[in-house]
Amino acid sequence: MKTLRTAATLSLLALLAACARQAPSAVQADAPGLVFGIWHGFIFPIAWALSLFMPDVAVYAVPNNGGWYDFGYFLGIWFFGVGAWRGKKVVYRTRVVRDRGTVIDHR
């Protein structure tokens, strides 16, 4: 039941997000496009930190040229920016074996 409710909520939110669009009159010929979207996505963590203290700094360019800017922003964040800082993940596993009352610890 909870899974069904979560799926319905996410579907409704996706449907509402699909209705959002940018007015064609807001797009200018020199509006930021794909390349600026990649750059803004890459510098997102720095821009976000600066935006907390400086009102003139924003993390997203408005107006922009729409879908291509958004795609570049996604690429910038995920592949070149924060998402690329995945480093090594080390997993340590401890196994304790109980043998007739004695504990043998294999580390």
Automatic annotation (TrEMBL):
For this protein, the parts annotated as crossing the membrane are 39-61, 68-85
- What UniProt keywords are attached to this protein's entry? Membrane, Signal, Transmembrane, Transmembrane helix
> In the record, which residues are listed under signal peptide?
1-29
Task: Tell me the protein's name.
Answer: Lipoprotein
Which species is this record about?
Answer: Sphingomonas xinjiangensis
